[in-house]
Design goal:
Shape of chain A: globular
Order of helices and strands of chain B: HHEEHHHEEHEHHHHH
Strand order of the largest sheet of chain B: 1-2
Largest sheet of chain B: 2 strands, antiparallel
Largest interface: A-B, 56 and 60 residues
Helix content of chain A: over 70%
Oligomer: heterodimer
Largest sheet of chain A: none
């Protein structure tokens, strides 16, 4: 190799600088994760519906507990990311750590879970936007009509890749957080019975019955934290940026959600938070604020709630479409899913598939006359959250197994202690989540839904495993690339083999 | 015509000169073509995803020479991925200027709001249509394809451009998997890395 070490100094830095200018720092990655988390959707939507449906008051402390578990989980997860081609997708860790067929099962569960999270929001937006439309324009529209409008917006942005202008999203996010903080402090300054109660933050809530429902709800609030590692290769300092960004995201989410859900319970009083959530539903947060704040501010909060849901929908839509894209590129799903839109580079086929699923769900729920808030927004999102919980457990096991074979200077804490502790805790959380599923959905113990959803995930997962085994037997070239996502082709063994003497092809 | 010229022609409209692809995808395709030119000039080769300069004799083309000089001057940056990401930032303009010098395009300045943008407009639409037409005819007649066209076909496939510019070819015949075995290893590796960079860009919203 010929090289010129003399000139290296100055110019080499010019190229690294040109590349670095395009790379992401910690704030950008945290913003990306947080915009996907869309806090107002969780605080005003998931939390209030959660209080109402489960009848439990321990949601604030559950956010803290799950935040700690996920911070532990992130230690091994982030440490394994550099070894994982398709970082950011749980199934890639499962494929790499445990076994490829299990990875395919994980991929299918993940796809269904993210898909449920996305479509659930159509119910949420239908209910959340209705009062805004009525107050501002005097129009009363059925939820499904609003949902269809939202669906059309999501469908178009999914194809157009308006790439959800990062700056707009960041501004929206800051406004959402500001609204949450202002509303929450207002709640705290006006406590029920003139005493600030800490009982919803008491760890004692975590040993009561139905605690699994609280865990599932809290997990749901964190979904999206896993996406920071997508930027491993795009970040300024691959080792540090993603790690710090992930911890920061988990910490911010835990503190913000615990604080906001606690403040709500202070304003109503812990004794009335459940009944008030049941009667006022999505309006609770805004009604509480309206008692003490200017109406304009409450209106702004309402509007941001709607935009927050839209942003969440678009974000989950993109996640699902990109999952399908990665699986299509691997040929684990039909290759056409790996196609991109020529003009915009968005994963167009995956996007269209998700769009069709959304339409079908909205129409079915509307025609059957199911409740958009409980039976669409809450049921599907919490069930999707439970699916993510299964994936977290398998990914945790994946990191343990992986680091039992690989050691490139990771500490004992990264390789063993944190992953094992996190996985054990996640297993406990999963046990309670599944056994308390009836509490989560707010249905009786003998409802068929109690077993239908969890069993559904197991069936989908097993089907994926079987498909993985079929691939191993029938399509070894596809089997090899499971979990590699876009980097599929790099693993081809044909690389580096002896050159074909022909430089032309006769087709 | 050089490889990057052919990709430029194929990836831009033959009348208006506007891109068919997104800015990022166009830049990536052109960056890969520019590196591909140096591989075909036997100035560089690829070795385990790294670029290695094998011959420093200046190539005839000025742009190829500039890039070779740059590669030689920066031995600390070796991975093909980094070079693709770096070159893609300027490739479209560099190749556009090369075509301008050769008289294949005209420069047109257009004002949009406060920004003025430079657009390269085709002088002769046939020049722009020729590479894709040539490729399509060869594939249709199952003729032998020149090495340069083979790599071009691979790039068109990677960037999902083939559905637009090459009609009537069944996917199986243009699939990247089928092209790979017949390309020489260095070009094959370059194509595979380009494919991975493209896919990663989609997954990280950076296309």
């Amino acid at each position: 190799m010929q090289s010129t070490p003399v000139k290296a100094g100055k110019k080499a830095s010019s190229i690294s600088m040109a590349l670095a200018a395009n790379r992401l720092g910690i704030p950008s990655v945290v913003f990306f994760v947080m915009t996907a988390a869309t806090p107002l959707t969780v605080v005003a939507g998931t939390v209030t519906t959660g209080y109402a449906t489960t009848g439990l008051i321990g949601i604030p402390v559950a956010f803290i507990a799950i935040g700690i578990v996920l911070a532990l989980f992130s230690v091994g997860y982030v440490a394994m990311a550099p070894y994982t081609a398709n970082a950011g997708a749980f199934y890639a860790y499962i494929s790499r750590g445990i076994a490829k067929p299990l990875g395919v099962g994980g991929a299918w569960v993940a796809l269904v879970s993210y898909c449920m999270l996305q479509v659930s929001l159509y119910g949420g937006v239908g209910v959340a936007a209705a009062p805004v439309l009525k107050d501002w324009f005097g129009v009363s529209a059925p939820w499904w009509l609003i949902a269809l409008v939202a669906w059309a917006i999501v469908a178009i942005t999914g194809i157009q890749q308006v790439s959800m202008n990062g700056k707009i999203l960041a501004v929206l996010l800051c406004c959402e957080v500001a609204v949450i903080v202002v509303f929450s402090f207002t709640d705290l300054f006006h406590p029920a019975h003139n005493a600030v109660s800490f009982s919803t933050l008491s760890p004692g809530n975590l040993i009561g019955s139905g605690v699994g429902a609280l865990f599932s709800l809290a997990i749901l609030g964190f979904v999206g934290f896993e996406s920071a590692v997508v930027f491993s290769e795009e970040s300024k300092d691959p080792k540090r940026t993603v790690r710090v960004a992930t911890y920061l995201a988990v910490a911010i989410i835990a503190v913000l959600y615990a604080f906001a859900s606690w403040a709500m319970s202070v304003a109503t009083g812990p004794d009335k938070i459940v009944s008030d959530s049941q009667t006022q539903q999505l309006d609770l947060v805004f009604n509480l604020a309206a008692q003490h704040l200017a109406p304009a501010l409450v209106d702004l909060g309402h509007l941001l709630f709607v935009t927050s849901m839209l942003a969440a929908m678009i974000s989950f839509h993109n996640t699902t479409a990109r999952y399908m894209f990665a699986l299509g590129r691997e040929r684990v799903l039909p290759a056409s899913l790996g196609r991109t839109s020529r003009r915009t580079g968005s994963p167009i086929v995956g996007s269209l598939v998700q769009t069709v699923v959304g339409l079908v769900i909205i129409l079915v729920w509307a025609l059957v006359g199911l409740d958009p808030l409980i039976q669409l927004f809450f049921w599907l999102s919490t069930t999707g959250g439970v699916g993510i919980l299964f994936l977290l457990v398998l990914t945790g096991i994946g990191t343990i197994v992986f680091f039992s074979r690989t050691n490139n200077g990771e500490t004992l804490w990264q390789r063993r202690i944190a992953p094992i502790a996190a996985t054990v805790l996640l297993l406990i959380v999963t046990y309670f989540a599944v056994t308390n599923f009836a509490v989560l959905l707010g249905v009786s113990n003998n409802s068929p839904l109690v077993w239908a959803f969890p069993v559904g995930f197991v069936v989908i997962g097993l089907a994926g495993v079987i498909w993985g085994l079929v691939l191993r037997a029938r399509h070894p070239e596809v089997y090899k690339s499971i979990g590699l996502g876009a980097k599929r082709a790099i693993a081809e063994p044909s690389l580096g083999t002896s050159p074909s003497t022909e430089s032309v092809v006769g087709q | 015509m050089l490889l990057a010229d052919d990709f430029y022609f194929t990836a831009h409209d033959h009348i208006t000169g506007k891109r068919h692809l997104s800015e990022g995808a166009t830049g990536l395709g052109l960056a890969a073509s520019l590196l591909g030119e140096l591989v075909m000039f036997e100035r560089i080769t690829l070795d385990r995803a790294n670029i290695r300069v094998v011959n420093r004799v200046p190539p005839e083309d000025a742009l190829a020479y500039t890039i070779l000089e740059h590669l030689v001057a920066e031995p600390s940056v070796t991975t093909a991925k980094e070079w693709l990401l770096y070159l893609r930032q300027t490739a479209e303009d560099q190749v556009g200027q090369r075509l301008l010098r050769a008289g294949h395009v005209r420069r047109m300045q257009s004002r949009k709001l406060l920004r003025s943008t430079i657009q390269y407009v085709p002088v002769d639409l046939n020049t722009f249509l020729w590479p894709a037409t040539r490729l399509e005819m060869a594939l249709r007649r199952r003729e032998q394809v020149e090495l340069q066209d083979l790599f071009l076909a691979g790039l068109i496939n990677v960037t999902d451009l083939h559905r637009l510019v090459i009609q009537g070819i069944t996917p199986s015949t243009t699939s990247i998997d089928q092209l790979l075995p017949v390309l020489p290893p260095a070009l094959r590796e370059l194509l595979v890395i380009t494919d991975a960079v493209y896919g990663d860009a989609v997954l990280t919203h950076r296309l």
